[in-house]
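Researcher: Structure for this, please.
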Amino acid sequence: MYAIKCDICKDVIGDERKKIMVGFGWDRFDLCAACGWEVVDFLQDKKLVKLEDVSC
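Model: Predicted structure, token format:
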């Protein structure tokens, strides 16, 4: 079975909607929501990303 783990804290990410992928091309990192929000906040402060509601 393939388990996705956070690249920072090494916890298993169980729910696909609680995963944040950061990177481009081959340099991709999977982060849990707790670790990933720091990255998202930084990108929002620099106006490099905008969050959208994509719930189904």
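Researcher: Any notable elements?
Model: The longest strand covers residues 19-24. The beta strands are 19-24, 27-32.
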